[in-house]
Amino acid sequence: MPKLVPSPTGADPAFTDHTTYVDKTPCNCLALRQAARHLTQVYDRHLAQEGLRSTQYSILSVLGRLGAMPIGRLADTMVVERTALGRALRPLERGRLLAVGAGADARTRSVSLTAKGEARLKAAAVRWRRAQKEFEAAYGADAAQALRSALHRVVEAA
Predict the structure, then answer these.
(1) CA angle (104 as vertex; 55, 90 as ends), nearest 5
(2) Is residue 5 predicted with pLDDT exceeding 90?
(3) CB 42 within 8 A of CB 134
(4) Strand order of the sheet with strand 98-102?
(5) Which CB contacts under 8 angstroms, 24+ apart, belong to 72-78?
(6) Is 78 found in the same domain as 58?
(7) Is residue 45 part of a domain?
(8) Same domain for 110 and 59?
(9) How far apart are CA 112 and CA 65, in angstroms?
(10) d(C-alpha 43, C-alpha 54), whole Å
């Protein structure tokens, strides 16, 4: 029988006592997506204090670590469809956190952090570390490292 656990947000209107129905599915895809959505809520809660969502922080973080790159390479690095990445970049560009400009040739566009983006990334990293600690306290630091290693293998195997 699936287990009922407290909802991190209490937002599930199907349960008046603010619980979430956890389906211990045998489907790898569903189980991974459920875990990802749960963990995203944790990081979003922390990053909201800097006006970012975890998806936005991830983009800034990748650019901060790897530097400017063509949009197609960023999409490949993040394992996301290029059109979806384009939609995710727009609010960051409007907020002047990143710049999209001409790439190496007329067919490509390049994306880079702005000074404002670097400053926001630095401030948000403090909140990200708090989210990271919250998850590792609940899940275990060694188990979290093993999980990241396993997830990297999933991406490499695809």
Answers:
(1) 30
(2) no
(3) yes
(4) 69-70, 109-113, 98-102
(5) 72/108, 74/111
(6) yes
(7) no
(8) yes
(9) 11
(10) 6
CA distances from 158 to 29, 153, 154 (A): 13, 9, 6
Q: Pick the more confident residue, 123 or 24.
A: 123
94 and 33 fall within a common domain = no
Q: Are 57 and 95 in contact (CB under 8 A)?
A: no
d(CA 100, CA 12): 38
Query: For position 15, what pLDDT does the model report?
Result: 43
Please state the length of the chain.
158
H/E stretch holding 4 reads strand 3-6
Are 80 and 113 within one domain? yes
Q: What is the mean pLDDT of residues 133-158?
A: 93
SS percent in the chain: helix, strand, coil, step 5: 65, 15, 25
Is 43 inside a domain boundary? Answer: no
Q: How many independent structural domains does the chain possess? A: 2
Q: 125 is in which domain, residue-wise?
A: 50-158
Cross-strand pairs, 5 = 20
pLDDT of residue 103: 77
Residues 30-74: tens digit of each pLDDT? 999 999 999 999 999 999 999 999 999 999 999 999 999 999 999
